[in-house]
Amino acid sequence: DVTEIEEKEAQAKQEEQIMKEQELSNLLHEKRYLRALGLAISLDRPHTVLMVVKAILKETDGRKHLEENIVRLRKDQKEAVLTFLVTWNTNSRNCHEAQAVIETLLKHEAPDSLLQYSGIKSAVESLLPYT
């Protein structure tokens, strides 16, 4: 009978999730946005990533800070943000944040580099009608 082992594993995962949520909350409170972005992306939380982007943009020189943080993300994290912003761009409440991230990616990534992103073709096709 492995029921007890499975329950312990599920509880451990839940506890780890709670710890990450608390860490994310602390990072946002401390305005450590790069780590917050990375953690929200690793948790696969598009809405949380959006909230971090909004928090960055509310700061003085928000666009500049957004650029600094987006540029420092790893390629896989940028790909995840790209998939998230396709959804954000379809909503008028979030389209400005999506456009700010798109602008940053287009400014700082070479076209050849962008073409290497997984899902770039479908992302561009989805972004065109709303952009």
TrEMBL record:
Any GO BP: endonucleolytic cleavage to generate mature 5'-end of SSU-rRNA from (SSU-rRNA, 5.8S rRNA, LSU-rRNA)
One Pfam family recorded for the sequence: Utp13
GO cellular component: 90S preribosome; small-subunit processome
Domain U3 small nucleolar RNA-associated protein 13 C-terminal: 21-131
Keywords: Nucleus, Repeat, WD repeat
Compartments reported by the entry: Nucleus, Nucleolus
Main location: nucleus
GO molecular function: U3 snoRNA binding
UniProt keyword Nucleus, yes or no: yes
Protein name: TBL3 protein
Source organism of the structure: Fregetta grallaria
